[in-house]
Specification:
Elements (H helix, E strand, L loop, with lengths): L4 H14 L13 E6 L10 H19 L3 E3 L9 H10 L3 H17 L16 H16 L3 E11 L4 E3 L4 E2 L2 E2 L7 E10 L5 H6 L10 H11 L2 E10 L1 H6 L6 E6 L10 E4 L4 H8 L5 H12 L2 H6 L4 E9 L6 E7 L10 E4 L5 H10 L7 E2 L15 E2 L10 H14 L3 E6 L5 E2 L1 E2 L9 E4 L3 E4 L21 H4 L5 E3 L6 E4 L3 E2 L1 H4 L3 H4 L12 H7 L4 E5 L5 H15 L12 E4 L2 E3 L2 E2 L10 H8 L1 H10 L7 E2 L2 H16 L19 H22 L5 H16 L4 H15 L4 H12 L18 E8 L2 E9 L4 H11 L1 H4 L4 E7 L3 E6 L1
Parallel strand pairs: 1-2, 1-24, 10-12, 24-25, 26-28, 29-32
Antiparallel strand pairs: 3-4, 3-7, 5-6, 7-17, 8-9, 8-11, 8-16, 10-13, 11-12, 14-15, 18-23, 19-20, 19-22, 21-22, 26-27, 29-30, 31-32
Helix pairs in contact: 1-25, 2-20, 3-4, 19-20, 20-21, 22-23, 22-24, 23-24, 24-25
The protein binds one RNA strand through helix 7, strand 9, strand 13, helix 12 and strand 28.
Length: 813
RNA sequence: GCGGACGUGGUGAAAUUGGUAGACACGCCAGACUUAGGAUCUGGUGCCUAACGGUGUGAAGGUUCAAGUCCUUUCGUCCGCACCA
């Protein structure tokens, strides 16, 4: 039979579309699988990363459909976001037009890959209906104390003209354009993700069996829980006066209360209120004031790279246990955003404090004793036995921590505290192409949420995108509105939401995609959620995957749904590389999926992507291997002529020749392997494809047409998730599609009359022996010794090991 | 610095509980068919050696009848976080 990919692919894509072949059934009694790939941003064209992503999830979805599950495998569009505005500026196109045209084009591209998506559940997050429910969530969050507005320092990207969340700042630069991020005081809306810090951390344990360890660790680090002692340092008399009694103390946090007797100075962040007061009121000599001002101007990123430096503030605090006077400094390494912006410094037992103390000749006082400690050279930061620590001397670090915290709590000097690195999620963006934040500013009522019945607040179409400022802010009428509370003239909020808000709940909406009155039906969520298999790139390990986990928990607490975690199993696929580098336009090493499909067909693209590497690993592009994938399909199709039966033939296995038996064995091995990779969720399609190739090679080595028919029946079944067009075409022609349903593994084909054993001497393989399976262990050993006699001359056998079906090991001296 | 993942041929990669290392491909070599072939088919292909044989999973030890797999040490690569008190 001849292989004509473009003809059969077009044919089946049309049939699938016409028959709406992949819509899940309405019945909620069937066992279900929810298979999801991270939805695409409609950038204009799909790339090889998409091909890989969707091919993997499509194969999984198709497998479970064969196995009789009700499968939800939806796709949609993450369609708000900046590229639409950039394109608008560049091509003078409205972002909406650009976005929806891209969606139409990319939908066709995805269809050309033969992806088995649900047709009726597709939506774009920029659809007004989606915005409506999202705005409703935001208002509910506000009403339940999960969202607040606040003016504070934000990450500002000048190139993108917008605020960024902490998660979107990569090494001090914008995650999108790589421009340096500046700090700027601005009002903004924040979602209280920190309220869920502990739950987000604790529930990682429930994901251990289904998520890659790497992702769990990254989330754990990002949440960054640490436990310690928070206490107050009081200023001494002289310092109180110096600061005009405006301050009397400040708070610090430490994870090492056992080192508290080693405090020899304390340090404040340059942004600390006390530092600001000193600078504003010129309470130090001019040169020092200038130095502090210079420090304040340095960005967080540059500070991280700079040497440690500081200025003595010429004030002192009292040590809470010894009452000794301790100098207060301002230091560039103290972060304003963590632990109150102030630290107690223990140079002997903290490397950072040590460097600072060495530079400014501050005392280094040992309070943890350990033979490995060498304070002449560096700080000793591990645990040990307390010395120079008053009543706590002699205690080991672990016990001392508890005892000192207890002492502080008993004497009301401080308390045990848990700190997180996780910050609240700033969702304000000063951009046009996003979901408007549904709030109104009223001079009488302050910040007022829009009424639910007025939602959605939609974007005006008549805007000019210039890249300068927010078009909503300068729009003639968008801002003008009435206060939902008192009815007076008011101003509508012009900030739009971070696009990560949309991707935080889209997987829930697929469960009830078309309801105009509510975001989702509880019954639908109960049935379909959680996602059984989520597939996407590792780059979302923190951003999207953390936000989506949070949103699920928040919507649960708002009464919408009843689940704790959205994604039961997660597969993070590797990148697609060419010439050792990630494919990118700027490097010019991209492969165009459309061109690939028109040259070889979608099935070849799919086969190559799944065969060249296991999904979690990087995939190195290789043109001749693509050619190889194509040739395999062609060879496979060519052999269809050997099939002579419309059904699965029956056999008396014992009457077959050796080659025929071997062919059947290889075929069933492929079937077994296939079940195995889905059930263990390794999804190593490469091994299944290899097993199919072996099976085809083995079929080729014999001529029995019944064996061919059976082999073909099964191989089409195994390969259908991988190369669906080819398999539907042949299955339809040869077997009336009867083989696209579960097939029983016949164990009889794995049993041979004879077994081949390796003969190893002292663990080294020397020979092989084929024996009748009915022979006893002693008979086999004796045959093996004869066969390997050459290796046993002048030697004494001191031990004989027989591993059934595997090998014989003779230990000889 | 902290945390995680991983080191197997020329290349991509296989290898249940420890049990014949390199399956399956790509590439390469040889042959057949052919006007031709970048088509197809057949055979070969870890390294060293003419061969017998030796050797081989980053390195060094260890456990074991037997180690890619388990343990210890070490080197290297990649990724994430990073002055988090």
């Amino acid at each position: 039979m001849e292989y004509n990919p473009s003809k059969i692919e077009q044919k089946w894509q049309e049939i699938w579309h016409r028959e709406n072949a992949f819509e899940p059934k309405n019945s909620k009694d069937l066992p279900k699988k929810y298979i999801l790939s991270m939805f695409p941003y409609p950038s204009g064209r799909i790339h090889m990363g998409h091909v890989r992503n969707y091919t993997i999830s499509d194969a999984i979805a198709r497998y479970y459909r064969q196995e009789g599950f009700n499968v939800l495998h939806p796709v949609g569009w993450d369609s708000f976001g900046m590229p639409a505005e950039n394109a608008a500026i560049k091509h003078k196109l409205h972002p909406k037009k650009w976005t929806y045209e891209n969606i139409d084009y990319m939908r066709k591209e995805l269809a050309s890959l033969g992806l088995s998506f649900s047709k009726e559940r597709e939506f774009a997050t920029s659809d007004p209906l989606y915005t409506k429910f999202e705005q409703e969530f935001i208002i509910k969050m506000y009403e339940n104390g999960l969202l607040y507005e606040k003016k504070q320092n934000v990450n500002w990207c000048e190139t993108c003209h917008t605020v960024l969340a902490n998660e979107q700042v990569v090494e001090g630069c914008c995650w999108r354009c790589d421009n340096e991020v500046k700090q700027k005081q601005m009002p903004g809306y924040y979602i209280k993700i920190t309220k869920y810090a502990q739950e987000l951390l604790d529930d990682l344990k429930n994901l251990e069996s289904g998520w890659p360890k790497q992702v769990l660790t990254m989330q754990e680090n990002w949440i960054g829980r640490s436990e310690g002692l928070a206490f107050n340092l009081k200023l001494d008399e002289r310092s109180l006066e110096k600061l005009d009694h405006k301050f009397d103390s400040f708070d610090v946090f430490t994870t090492r209360p056992d080192t508290i007797y080693g405090v020899s100075y304390t340090a404040l962040a340059p942004e600390h209120e006390i530092v600001k007061y000193i600078v504003e009121n010129n309470l130090l000599e001019q040169s020092k004031i200038e130095e502090i001002k210079a420090m304040q101007k340095v960005s967080e990123k540059d500070r991280a790279l700079a040497d440690k430096e500081g200025v003595s503030l010429e004030i002192e605090v009292l040590h809470p246990l010894t009452n000794e006077k301790i100098p207060v400094w301002v230091a560039n390494f103290v972060l304003a955003s963590y632990g109150g912006g102030a630290v107690m410094a223990v140079p002997a037992h903290d490397q950072r404090d040590y460097e600072f103390a060495s530079k400014y000749n501050l005392p280094i006082k040992e309070v943890i004793s350990n033979p490995n400690s060498n304070l002449q050279k560096e700080a000793f930061t591990e645990s040990g036995v307390l010395v120079n620590s008053g009543e706590f001397n002699g205690l080991k670090s672990q016990k001392a921590k508890k005892a000192i915290i207890y002492h502080f709590e008993q004497n009301s000097l401080g308390k045990k505290e848990i700190n997180y690195k996780l910050r609240d999620w700033g969702i304000s963006r000063q951009r046009y192409w996003g979901a408007p934040i549904p709030f109104v500013h009223c001079d009488s009522c302050g910040l007022v949420p829009e009424k639910i019945e007025n939602l959605p607040i939609t974007l005006p179409d008549d805007v000019e995108i210039t890249g300068e400022g927010n078009p909503l802010d300068t729009h003639p009428s968008f801002k003008v509105c009435k206060c939902p509370k008192c009815g007076k003239e008011a101003r509508r909020e012009t900030d739009t939401m971070d696009t990560f808000v949309q991707s935080s709940w889209y997987f829930l909406r697929y469960c009830t995609p078309n309801d105009k009155n509510k975001p989702f039906e509880k019954e639908d969520i109960d049935y379909w959620m959680s996602v059984d298999q989520y597939v996407g790139g590792i780059e979302h390990a923190i951003l999207h995957l953390l936000y989506a986990r949070f949103f699920t928990k928040a919507l649960r607490d708002l009464g919408y749904i009843d689940i704790d975690e959205p994604f039961e199993n997660l597969l993070t696929q590797g990148m697609v590389l060419k010439d050792g580098a990630k494919m990118s336009k700027s490097k010019g090493n991209t492969v165009d999926p459309d061109a690939l499909i028109s040259e070889y067909g979608a099935d070849t693209a799919r086969l190559f992507t799944l065969f060249a590497a296991p999904p979690v690993k990087e995939l190195e592009w290789n043109d001749s291997a693509v050619e190889g994938a194509f040739k395999f399909i062609r060879r496979f199709v060519d052999r269809a002529d050997h099939v002579n039966s419309k059904d699965l033939p029956e056999f008396d296995h014992s009457l077959l020749s050796k080659d025929e038996k071997n062919a059947r064995k290889k075929v069933y091995e492929a079937l077994k392997k296939s079940k195995d990779i889905y059930e263990t969720r390794t999804f190593t399609f490469n091994t299944v494809i290899a097993a199919c190739m072996e099976a085809l090679n083995a079929l080729n080595a014999q001529k029995n047409s019944d064996v061919w028919s059976e082999g073909y029946y099964i191989l089409l079944h195994v390969l259908e998730p991988i190369i669906p067009h080819t398999c539907w075409e042949l299955s339809d022609k040869l077997f009336d599609r009867k083989n696209l349903k579960p097939i029983k593994i016949l164990e009889e084909v794995f049993v041979d009359d004879t077994i081949t054993l390796a003969i190893t001497i002292n663990g080294k393989k020397r020979d092989e022996i084929e024996v009748d399976k009915s022979l006893s262990k002693d008979e086999i050993l004796s045959l093996a010794k004869d066969k390997a006699s050459k290796w046993l001359e002048d030697k004494e056998i001191i031990k004989e090991i027989y591993v059934p079906n595997k090998l014989i090991n003779l230990v000889a001296k």
